[in-house]
Structures are given as structure tokens and as C-alpha cells.
Write a structure and sequence with these properties.
The strands form 5 sheets. The protein has a 3-stranded parallel beta sheet with strand order 1-2-3. It has a 3-stranded antiparallel beta sheet with strand order 5-6-7, with no helix packed on it. A 3-stranded mixed beta sheet has the order 12-11-13, with no helix packed on it. Among the domains are: 4-133 and 214-268, HUPs (Rossmann fold), CATH 3.40.50.620; 369-435, no CATH class; 450-526, Arc Repressor Mutant, subunit A (Orthogonal Bundle). It is elongated and about 95 Å long. Helix 2 links the parallel strand 1 (20-27) and strand 2 (57-64). With 529 residues, it is of the alpha/beta class. The chain has helices at 4-13, 38-52, 101-110, 125-130, 135-143, 145-153, 213-224, 233-236, 241-251, 283-289, 292-300, 314-330, 339-352, 355-358, 369-379, 383-392, 410-429, 450-465, 471-485, 489-501, 509-515, 518-525; strands at 20-27, 57-64, 121-124, 167-169, 180-186, 189-194, 199-203, 209-211, 228-232, 259-263, 266-268, 271-272, 308-310. It catalyses: tRNA(Lys) + L-lysine + ATP = L-lysyl-tRNA(Lys) + AMP + diphosphate.
Length: 529
């Protein structure tokens, strides 16, 4: 069984090139999120797989930082609309913390590249223009403007004007690049007019302008000798950017387009991610609630064009359970549902793991996330107490169930502390209200029926007279009590939550009670302060 990343690497290996250059790119129009950074993760995975196959390969990342600002990104104020149409590279940092708008939005991604094991060579579109890397391609494009117009017109309902040129100067007057129209040139000087009313000239050597996107994309393929590039499905549409740029690349620049890896967009709780609306989730936010490997797992567990929706809310607990299951199967800690699933799990995790991290130990110590949401709310910042609750409730897998907290290795403690922090962050930022609770120091003044009071007192006696180490056993005996009394299940559990939490709902009752101090539980169920 081969993963789709391996199949791509195998195909690339067969190509007769001295070096494979896997490109990724991102428009710096706001926060870089898990949707528009897919390029980076996919390109990195393909590049690493090629290197494992002994192929000379490099992964590059091109910041499209010379493009015009089309919408004010969240959370910038509306006053930033004065920069609409200007290149990102010419816009100041919104908070004064960085040298520019571009650095402000690039930095959060750069800060976490090592965490995700991403190795890339960054490039800047702005710097490429300023350094003159595009100059020869601008000249060729201007000289062959008619041929490029004809290529574009094959895919347009309304043909381009006969004087249209594939280049947009930055207006000397208003500073915008998406409102200019280049209509003539003489050697390296381009004449243009702008919607602001200005007529001007631009020397292409100044870097104060840019090729139109589909021409620029084709040019940089040849500049860097790019052999493979992932990109969003919008570019992959029939007659879209990739199709047109491929023709321009071949017919204008005499270069074969790179191997395409189109991918489906990621939605957030079913909604399209939007930088301007503030609907996005960044790799940095991911690390606050989950391990880096789990984002790779999210991206690589299915083919790139399959729809992917992410939710950091309740659905996240199901997702992280799936990831933990796959990880434990990989490390032979659990069995997969079938032989086919076993092979699938192992292959996906192999693609997802970050070698620098997993070399430190066999199985990373990541106790069950869902249960930790309960244990943390009981024990707080006391990791030793959390460990005891996990152990008492049989929540530790074979490799850890016979360990004591003080015997955990340094790296095991590191993983444990990281997961507790992730759970804490999830509870604070994304958990719905019904998941949250607080053990009340005093008995809450909430009404109980006589039947509920009797049930609580009998349950108190049961717990007082027995040492339960199995939540399932306590659960069964709780049911015997309520069945004997003819009390409805909902009313019985509500009584427990009322006297302990001061609310009508809470976590699974049996494991919850076992996680609390026994003397406290007995006194509280007996309604004694």
C-alpha cells in the first residue's frame, strides 16, 4: 500500500532532471491559515519523501507579497481600506511590531515551521522584482504580448483589448497596482494610465510593477526550475490559472509546467475560510490545542482533492481520538479494526510523523484527550493528581499503566505536560459551556426530590464500603440502586451533578466520582458539609 505522497514522489523520481524543486506559495493578504498553507505542508512532505528516495530535491516557498491588497484582513480596522490596491510590500505593519505588513503576517507561520518539521527556502516576490529576476521575463512578455493575449482570449468570454500588456506598473501618484493599465512600451519603459487619473511611465528595472498573475506564475516556474507545485482547486479549474500558465510557460518561456498537485479547500465548521471575515484557523492555533503530527494527519489521511472540514469545537474531540488511535496502532500499542485498516493507519502515520520528535521515544505519552478534559477540571494544574486520576480510571495504555508519575522519563513528562496544556487551551477557547464544570466547595442550594436524596445516600454507602478501581463496575452498581428504587436514570445522574457541580449535567458519572477524593464524595453524597 502506497500513500499518495509516495506515488507522487515515485513519479517525480522517474523524471530526467538534475534536481527537483517543489514549490509552494502564499498570498500575504492576511493571516496564513491551515487552508492557504496546504501548499507548504504538501510540498514539504513530497520534498522529504524524494530525499528519502535519494533524489536531489529542494522545497521553496514563494511569498506573493507584491500583489495588491483587495480586502482589509481581519482584525485590521476599516481605516486600512486606504491601502486597498497597493502591494502588500508597500503597506506598513498594522501594529508597529514588525518592519512591514508582510512580516507581520508571515511571522506566525515562520515561528512554527520547526514545530511541524518543515524545511523550506523562503523567497519574496517583492525582492525578486527589486533584484531584477523577472526583468528578462517582463521583456519577453512585452515583446510577445500579442501571443499572450491570444492565449488568454482562448479562455475569455470578452477578449482583451489590442493594446493590453501583461504588466501592471505601480502608479506613481496613488501607489496602487491593480488600477493601472499598461498600453505601450519602448524598450524597458512602459506607458500606463491609472484609474486615479494619472498618466505615467515606468522603468521595468525599478521593480515598481509586476507581471499579470498567470504570466508571473509561468515565469517563476522557469526562474527556479520548479518541477512540482501544489495549489488550490481554484487554480486547477478547466481553463483556470494552471491551464493558461502551462501554455504560456511552454509557448512563451519554453519551459514545461511542473507536476500539479491540486487540493480541495478546507472549511471551518462548514464555512469557507476568509481572511477578511476572520473565519480561519492558523497552524499556530493548531499547536495550542493539538500536536503538530495531528495537523499532518488531518491533511494526509485522505487524498488532496477530498473535502476537508475542521472544527475546533466538540467534533475536535472525535478527531483527536482518531489521531490517537492511529498513532497507537503505529507504535503497536493498540490493534486496528482490521488488517486493511492496520496497513492504512501505519502508512498515514508514517506520512504524518515528525521525525525529530518521534525519535525521542517510542510511543509519545498522550493520555486520552476527552478524559483529560474531565481530569484537568478536577485537578487543575496538579499534573501528578491528573496522572493518578488517569491511572485510577484505567486510562493509561499498556506501556504506561504500570508506571508511577515519578517514574516518567523527561521526554514522557514533556509530552504529558504538552497534552495537558493543549486540553487546558481547548477548554478555555473552544469547549462549549456544557463541557465545562467546577467542583463546588460547598453543597449547592439546588432542589432534590426525596427519591434523589435517598439515591445519593445509598450511593454514598456503596462507595464508602468498597474500593472501586473500575468505573464500569461502579456504573453497573449505580444502576442497580436506581433500578431498585425505580428512579429514572436522568433524575439519578442529575442529583449527582447538582450536589457536586451545582448544575444538571456533567461528565460520565462513574468515572467522574472515581476521579474525586473518596472522602469528599461520600460526605457530599450524604449531603454533609
Amino acid at each position: 500500500m502506497k500513500h499518495w505522497i509516495e506515488r507522487i514522489a515515485d513519479e517525480l523520481k522517474e523524471r530526467d532532471v538534475e534536481k527537483h524543486v517543489i514549490a509552494s506559495g502564499t498570498s500575504i493578504s492576511g493571516s496564513i491559515h491551515i487552508g492557504n498553507s496546504c501548499d507548504v505542508f504538501i510540498a514539504n512532505a513530497i520534498g522529504k519523501k524524494l530525499k528519502e528516495l535519494g533524489v536531489n530535491a529542494e522545497t521553496i516557498w514563494i511569498a506573493d507579497d507584491h500583489d495588491p491588497l483587495r480586502k482589509v484582513p481581519y482584525p485590521l480596522p476599516e481605516s486600512y481600506d486606504k491601502y486597498l490596491g497597493m502591494p502588500y510590500s508597500n503597506i506598513p505593519c498594522p501594529e508597529g511590531c514588525c518592519s512591514s505588513f508582510v512580516e507581520h503576517f508571515e511571522k506566525p507561520l515562520f515561528d512554527v515551521l520547526d514545530d511541524f518539521g518543515i524545511e523550506l527556502t523562503p523567497k519574496s516576490g517583492f525582492e525578486m522584482y527589486k533584484q531584477g529576476l523577472y526583468n528578462d521575463y517582463i521583456r519577453i512578455s512585452l515583446e510577445k504580448a500579442e501571443e499572450i493575449r491570444n492565449i488568454f482570449n482562448q479562455y475569455r468570454e470578452h477578449p482583451l483589448a489590442n493594446d493590453w500588456l501583461p504588466y501592471n506598473p505601480i502608479c506613481d501618484e496613488c501607489g496602487r497596482v491593480n488600477t493601472t493599465y499598461a498600453y505601450a512600451f519602448n524598450e524597458d519603459t512602459v506607458q500606463y494610465r491609472c484609474d486615479c487619473g494619472h498618466d505615467g511611465e515606468m522603468d521595468i528595472n525599478s521593480g515598481n510593477g509586476k507581471l499579470t498573475w498567470r504570466v508571473e506564475w509561468a515565469a517563476r516556474w522557469k526562474i527556479f526550475k520548479i518541477t512540482c507545485e501544489p495549489f488550490g482547486k481554484d487554480h486547477a479549474a478547466s481553463g483556470g490559472s494552471y491551464d493558461v500558465s502551462s501554455i504560456i510557460s511552454k509557448e512563451i518561456f519554453n519551459y514545461t509546467a511542473p507536476y500539479p498537485v491540486p487540493y480541495e479547500w478546507i472549511t471551518l465548521d462548514g464555512e469557507a475560510m476568509s481572511k477578511s471575515k476572520g473565519v480561519f484557523f492558523t497552524p499556530k492555533q493548531w499547536l495550542e490545542i493539538a500536536p503538530a503530527e495531528s495537523l499532518n494527519y488531518f491533511l494526509f489521511r485522505s487524498k488532496p482533492m477530498k473535502h476537508k472540514d475542521f472544527s475546533p469545537k466538540m467534533a475536535f474531540l472525535d478527531f483527536i481520538e482518531q489521531f490517537d488511535k492511529v498513532e497507537k496502532v503505529y507504535y503497536n500499542e493498540e490493534e486496528a479494526p482490521s488488517e486493511k485498516e492496520d496497513k492504512k493507519f501505519r502508512k498515514i502515520y508514517e506520512m504524518s510523523k515528525i521525525q525529530e520528535n518521534t525519535e525521542k521515544t517510542n510511543l509519545p505519552f498522550r493520555p486520552p484527550y476527552r478524559f483529560l478534559t474531565v481530569a484537568y477540571q478536577i485537578a487543575g494544574e496538579d499534573n501528578e493528581k491528573i496522572f493518578e486520576i488517569l491511572k485510577k480510571n484505567s486510562q493509561l495504555t499498556d506501556s504506561f499503566k504500570n508506571k508511577e508519575y515519578e517514574t516518567l522519563s523527561e521526554i514522557e513528562n514533556e509530552y504529558f505536560e504538552k497534552r495537558v496544556d493543549e486540553v487546558k487551551n481547548w477548554l478555555e477557547k473552544y469547549a462549549p459551556k456544557f463541557v465545562k464544570f467546577q467542583v463546588m466547595k460547598n453543597i449547592p442550594n439546588l432542589p432534590l426530590t426525596d427519591e434523589q436524596t435517598t439515591f445519593l445516600k445509598e450511593l454514598a454507602i456503596l462507595i464508602e464500603e468498597n474500593d472501586f478501581n473500575d468505573a464500569a463496575k461502579l456504573h453497573d452498581e449505580m444502576y442497580e440502586i436506581l433500578n431498585k428504587q425505580g428512579l429514572k436514570i436522568q433524575k439519578a445522574f442529575q442529583a449527582i451533578y447538582k450536589v457536586v457541580l451545582g448544575q444538571k449535567q456533567g461528565p460520565k458519572a462513574a468515572s467522574f466520582l472515581l476521579s474525586l477524593d473518596k472522602d469528599f464524595v461520600v460526605k457530599r453524597l450524604k449531603l454533609l458539609e
